[in-house]
Amino acid sequence: VVAVGNTVQYTISVKNTSLTKSIDSVTLNDTLPDGLSYVNDSLTIDGTDSTDPITAINLNTIAPNTTSTIKFTANVNSNPTTGDKYTNSATLSYTFKSPDNTDLSSSVSATNNIYSNSIVITPTISISDKSSNEIDHVVAVGNTVQYTISVKNTSLTESIDSVTLNDTLPDGLSYVANSLTIDGTDSTDPITAINLNTIAPNTTSTIKFTANVNSNPTTGDKYTNSATLSYTFKSPDNTDLSSSVSATNNIYSNSIVITPNISISANPNIVNINDIVTYSITISNDTSTIIENPVLTDTLPSGLTYKANSLTVNGTESTDFLETGVTLPNIDLTNPVTVEFKATVVSTPSLGIEYINNVNLDYDFNSIAGTLSNKISANNTIHSNAIIIKPNIILNSSKRSVSIGDYVKFTLLVENNNSTTIENPIVTFKVSNGLAFIPNSLNINGSNSSESIENDIFLANISPNKTSTVIFQCRVNSLPPDGIQYLSLATIKYNFQSPGGQLTNILNSNNNIIFTNSTIINPLIFKHITYITSKNNPLIENIDMLNLTRSPIIYSLNTYPLNGYASISENGTLIYTPKIDFIGKDTFSLLLSNKKLGSITSTITVIIKSSSDFKYNLC
Q1: Closest to 279 in 3D by CA, of 309, 326, 302, 312
Q2: For residues 466-493, average pLDDT
Q3: Taking the CA atoms of the chain, what radius of gyration do you get in angstroms?
Q4: Domain for residue 340, yes or no?
């Protein structure tokens, strides 16, 4: 089979079949068909160049039982003038001796047909891939890739026969056993010799199989899969002709993927209902390949709502919507993009104590595989304030009223009623002006310390259900700033482990109030009372102790406890019953009324412990 522009070498073999006599005056006349032309100086006779024209090739004498071989080349200049074939005719003229030694003449002829490539049936073969990777035509070690090879017989009238497909996987990929199907039917053929038999006219055969990605490409970044289809078909004169076609498919290592960096921060990261959270999302690109057409989507968790008109991109207000996509500028090596917005905390998390904000970035980038698309994700977790582990911090004093020159002993109790250790606790005391710390009076958990409360006090970790105790003494050197009361408190800073990692918190103790002995107390200045009781143990207290003058006070409940039940008589008898098996802290308030002095609310805090001892602290 030839096409215009091809060359064809003809070989003509002439054998003298006589075993005893020569043939003489042998001349070969080769007539090329229209469309072919002789290539000058290409003629050889028995390997020797000849300048004879191919229409009169002089072979002289051919000895008995000897063969002479003639070769020459022709150019294919045009299609056949008729039909699909080029017929080359050769006539051999010669003489030979008769038995009576008379010279006799004779000739023999032969023809050869070659065909225009218009008769060739050339099926189409294509290879497509689908990998388990999220990016089309890209794979990573451990992925799988399914190859689909489509073979179509393009002839509308003739079948192609003896069809065999040979697929050669590249290094780094291996065939998954028993994954081969031919037109949907399982096959046990090896992929290097897939038998497709006959493909009917205008029909497609589909071959599928799966390969594992075992290692990176041996060279470069791509895996090239090659498939060759071998087949036969009939010529117009019913001759079996053979041909083959090939195709390749390239997939690429994920080393070509450009992945930007996404960082998300939130402030604050521990929140209460009605807090405003500011999110800042920074996307940077540390490669020389531009991140194109980036679109950011952000799905806020249940419990948070977007604060209208708070979205900015690189400081410029954006009217895009977080849920449907925020269009960003292209991102290159020197131009990161920052997206900021605010969200309002409207409810507790739908599950647990975490608000998880999920961010997706869709983008394009150019690669050796062309323009590829990718999506990456990131998230940020903030926590509801329920995550905070809070110890009970109670600052007591040995006296409720003092005179100048008196000594007062302070006791700080840090009670860890949680199941998590209080780590690295640091206590800071703020003692009222007029009170002076007595050096060497500090005692921590039963051990004397030379430290001063004017500095931070470092405590050992406090295990669950354990208490740390700090005791020190002060001398009353002068009147308090307001001339009435000495106000002191303690602050503790500590760490604790949470689902979100190690967190830090700061808590204040109650305000400890000591009055001067010369002060006339307004009965309505007391605002906070703390009691400690035990689990399932009712608390009965007489609040009359607040009435430090003869002016009568009327008591009533102002707010109600969440974890127990409370009542109070008009003359100040308080009854509080915790809920069954509740351990922790409960808070409610009382309304204290006086005809002359008006009214004020007093907050009651009840700490319910598992132990049976309890006490109260007026502060």
Answers
A1: 312
A2: 95
A3: 50
A4: yes
Q: What is the pLDDT of residue 260?
A: 97
More confident residue, 536 or 4: 4
**Position 600 confidence tier, pLDDT thresholds 50, 70, 90:** confident
Based on the domain organization, do 73 and 130 belong to the same domain?
A: no
pLDDT, one tens digit per residue, over 393-405 is 999 999 888 899 9
Q: Which of 516, 540, 575 is the last residue of a domain?
A: 516
Q: 408 and 485 share a domain?
A: yes
What are the distances in angstroms from CA 113 to CA 32, 77, 122, 309?
11, 16, 20, 83
- In this structure, the answer to whether residues 356 and 403 fall within a common structural domain is no
| pLDDT over 70 (residue 599) | no
38-46 — which CB contacts under 8 Å span 24+ positions? 38/72, 38/73, 38/74, 39/7, 39/72, 39/73, 39/74, 39/75, 42/9, 42/71, 42/72, 42/73, 43/70, 43/71, 43/72, 44/70, 44/71, 44/72, 45/69, 45/70
DSSP secondary structure letter of residue 450 = -
How far CA 208 is from CA of 136, 185, 186, 212, 231, in Å, comes to 18, 10, 10, 14, 19
Domain count, the chain: 5
Enclosing domain of residue 426? 388-516
**pLDDT greater at residue 101 or residue 524:** 101
Do residues 474 and 420 both lie within one domain? yes
Tokens of 153: 């017989």
Q: How many residues does the chain have?
A: 619
86: helix, strand or coil? strand
* Final residue belonging to a domain, choices 256, 282, 317: 256
Contact 590, 611 (CB under 8 A): no
Residue 123 has pLDDT above 50, yes or no: yes
Write b or e for each residue in 488-519: b if 16 or more Cβ atoms lie within 10 A of its Cβ, otherwise e. Answer: bbbebebbbebeeeebebeeebbebbbbbeee
Q: Does the pLDDT value for residue 519 go beyond 50?
A: no
The yes-or-no verdict on residue 208 having pLDDT over 70 is yes
Q: What is the pLDDT of residue 114?
A: 92
**Residue 297 contacts residue 326 (beta carbons within 8 Å):** yes
DSSP 3-state of 18: coil
Would residue 299 count as lying in a domain? yes
Q: Using alpha carbons, select from 543, 478, 487 the residue that is nearest to residue 515.
A: 487
- Distance of alpha carbon 307 from its chain centroid, rounded? 28
For residue 56, the domain's CATH number is 2.60.40
Distance of CA 618 to the CA centre of its chain: 56
Q: CA-to-CA distance for 464 and 496, rounded, in angstroms?
A: 11
Asked whether the predicted pLDDT for residue 520 surpasses 50, the reply is no
The DSSP result for 40-74, as a single string, is TT--EETTEE--S-TTSEEEEEE-TT-EEEEEEEE
pLDDT range class, residue 613, cuts 50, 70, 90: very low
Query: Cβ(401)–Cβ(514) under 8 Å?
Result: yes
Supply the DSSP string of 95-141, one letter for each residue: EEE-TT--EEEEEEEEEEEEEBGGG----EEEEEEEESSSSTTEE-T
Burial 435-444 (b: 16+ CB within 10 A, else e): bebeeebbbb
CA 309 to chain centre: 30
